[in-house]
Amino acid sequence: MARPNFFNDNANRTFPFKDKTAGVNTPDTGIFTMLELPDDAIVDCGFIMGPESGYIEGVHSIFLYKISKVSNVQINYEFRCDAPALADAPLIFAREITDDEYVTSFKESDIPEYLPISQSTSVSLSLSVSEADAACGEPFWSGYLVTGSTASISSRMSIGTVITRSSNSETLVLEGLIQNLDQSQVVSINIANADRTRAIRPADCPPFEWSFTTGEVFVVKECLQGEIVFDSGYNLSLAQIDASNTVRFGAVLNAGQGQACEELKLFPTETPPIDSTNNLLEGDYYCNETVRTINGLQGPDLVFFAGSGVAVTPDASTSTIEVDVNLVSLSVCTFSISESV
């Protein structure tokens, strides 16, 4: 907490604004411009730029944009930042004319508008309205303001008077009073599953059909905040790298909880294809239920021709092919072997 003598000193100098951006040739009485802002109007301020503010040091600035006397008892001080994301997020500090010197107040901007995954990308499942509409994230920016004599400033303004900054070189806040946290932290986590690999039937077979839309993103949970704990799932390697302040997820066979004994549903109501002959969520058959190659030849289409003396019979009910060497239509020669003594 600053000491009163610190504020007393500031009441007689341009601080917290850059030199020659305020307090220049201030008239002794009457109305003033932002460039002529009395030194004792504001004696201290400071700002924290949030992780989603888009603030870039050396590029963007914070400044006192305007002072408004909105009634016979209230004056507003409006600060703005020229970072694009903050164009519609000013910080407005209100003061009562009867306030004592060195009143300190804090203000936070709005939280960035949260667009749920279900609206920002192609998804087949959405969350409840209460979850999707919840505030998610950190304020764009926040700050504090310490004012001098509000009554002194009020006496120089009539009700409805607005003193507005007229150039980019006026009332610039010192960089040392700005803490930049842009892109410094994760503000929330969304969990979703991309669609699984689904079986594709050969061209001459009826295609698989599911009772829901496939090929999209399936949302599990949105806007997780606070203390979040990650745990390794099936075939998942999880590592925290302190040196780079990152968490690494890796797909590793048998890592984490090992291999799942059965298919895991992407969402509770996921089902196999319509009229499926088994319970595979992805459709078709297990790997050990299909022929992948025959004598090194691969599919998806392999054609069998029955030659002389051979019958090829498919059985669709069991998905098998019977190859019978029955010698039908072949002449059979008989002969004997004699051995002389």
Number of domains: 2
Helix/strand structural class: mainly beta
Return Rg in Å.
38 Å
Average of per-residue pLDDT values = 88
Cα separation of the termini:
125 Å
Can you walk me through this structure?
The protein has 341 residues and is mostly beta strands. The chain has 2 domains: 177 residues, no CATH class; 100 residues, no CATH class. It is 6% helix and 28% strand. It has a 4-stranded mixed beta sheet with strand order 5-6-1-8. About 2% of the residues have low confidence.
List the helices and strands and how they pair.
Blueprint: H1 4-10, E1 42-49, E2 62-69, E3 74-81, E4 91-96, E5 104-108, H2 117-120, H3 129-132, E6 141-147, H4 150-154, E7 162-164, E8 178-180, E9 189-194, E10 217-224, E11 234-241, E12 246-256, E13 293-294, E14 297-298, E15 310-315, E16 320-325
Parallel strand pairs: 1-8
Antiparallel strand pairs: 1-6, 2-3, 2-7, 3-4, 5-6, 9-10, 11-12, 13-14, 15-16
Short précis:
The protein contains four helices and 16 strands. It has about 350 residues and is mostly beta strands. A hairpin with a 4-residue loop joins strand 15 (about 310-315) and strand 16.
